[in-house]
Amino acid sequence: MLQLELFPRMEFKSLLDFQRLENVPLSLSDKKKLISHIDFFQTPKANDVIRHQHAQHLDKILGLRLKYIEEMLVAEAKGFDPEGSHESWGPSLHGGVQTWVGLDLQTLQTPYSEILRIFQLLKIKPYQHVVDLGAAYGRMGLVVGGLFIKNSFTGYEFVKARVDEGNRVYRELELGRCQLIEQDLYDRGFEMPEADIYFIYDYGQVEHIDYNLKQIQKISRKRPIKLVVRGKFTKRIIADHHPWLDLKYEGKLEEFFSIYTAYEN
Ligand SMILES: C[S@@+](CC[C@H](N)C(=O)[O-])C[C@H]1O[C@@H](n2cnc3c(N)ncnc32)[C@H](O)[C@@H]1O
Question: What is the dihedral of CA 167, 216, 89, 137, to 10 degrees?
């Protein structure tokens, strides 16, 4: 049971409970209470449709202006590529980089409840650092910032408007240990930061992901790492070219992620 200003006996049992929160002005203190409460990130039902709807409610409750920003990106992309689609708009707008402009927002991002499940399996330890490669609006940082107060998070993302919006919400919620950085992960000047946990959800072309995996491999020669992978594409690249990664957990049923570990010392 959570005590909020307008809802002194708040419980999260159905989507309606989340929907109610969308339509009231929440104070900063209430928003901070919400993100520090595990049930807030838990889907009321473990199926994909509800999981996505739950995530959509959370985005709205936390004040992320995703729809507006994505519509602006689509409008800009249509200027270059009027007959295009979500397959072509990203590359047209971002110099060939597949930024998935125009893709449904719930497909673009991992649901919060799946992120929570990932952390429950990872058993993250205090002071471990988490990196999301291709972070979009940085949902993972909201989970880390809210629930894992002794951990830090960095998300790298190509699209500046997504980075700015995610960081705006991190600042508003005073999540000082979380940040998004505007970065092309395939830029030869990009140095992979050392981290305990890396997350990849199919962000780019084969050669981009392969390049970043090789960078992570170098780090794994110095320290143990865990890698969480969402999406078939990256899992296939790992199966074909990265035997140094040990598969430790394969998502079951509607879990779309796998967890690998490595320490090549
Ligand atoms: C499928 S989304 C995943 C978002 C987030 N990791 C999640 O799971 O919610 C992939 C993101 O990677 C970004 N991306 C694609 N290529 C990139 C690159 N070369 N450098 C940085 N980000 C990139 C896209 O713009 C997109 O926001």
Answer: -20
Give residue 206's domain range: 106-262
Looking from the CA of residue 103, the nearest atom of ligand 1 is 1
Which of these, 263, 172, 187, lies nearest to 225 by C-alpha position? 263
Smallest CA-to-CA distance from 119 within 259, 246, 261 is with: 259
The domain total for the chain is: 1
Nearest to 161 by CA among 243, 265, 76, 232: 76
Distance from residue 265's CA to the centre of ligand 1 (Å): 30
Mean pLDDT of the chain: 95
Spacing, Cα 72 to ligand 1 middle (Å): 18
Where does the pLDDT of residue 150 fall: very low under 50, low under 70, confident under 90, or very high at 90 and above?
Answer: very high
Best residue among 157, 165, 197 to mutate for probing ligand 1's pocket (most ligand atoms within 8 Å of CB) is 157
**Within a domain: 58:** no
